[in-house]
Amino acid sequence: MDWTPRQYPRYKAALPVEMRPLAVSVPLRGQTEDISMGGFYVEITFTQPVSTELNITLWVGDTKLHARGVVVSNHPAFGNGIKFTEFGEADKESLKRFLESLVGQRSSGRTAVR
Questions:
Q1: C-alpha 85 chain-centroid distance
Q2: CATH code, 11-100
Q3: pLDDT tens across 24-73, in order?
Q4: How far is CA 108 from CA 9, 11, 17, 19, 57, in A?
């Protein structure tokens, strides 16, 4: 696979996150390793299979952001790559403002576009 730049800049940020697979009532809790407008990587021991659809709650300070997403990468016992699939406009704008506050702290990893 050829390496190409991501659609959105990625930033290092350790944010608490709660994910609920659509068919499961018990939440999975973890912490983001990095995040962008397109998704995030979450450090979590009990990883989910690729293509699992999720309801997501991210905490940015005292603010809860809600989104839907899908698992796009799975590294067992380490973490999952999550792609945002739905985001309310107000929550999306809050995430955008938070990420803009991180300019200059971009993650340096080279990863493929999904």
A1: 11
A2: 2.40.10.220
A3: 889 999 999 999 999 999 999 999 999 999 999 999 989 999 999 999 99
A4: 10, 9, 22, 26, 25
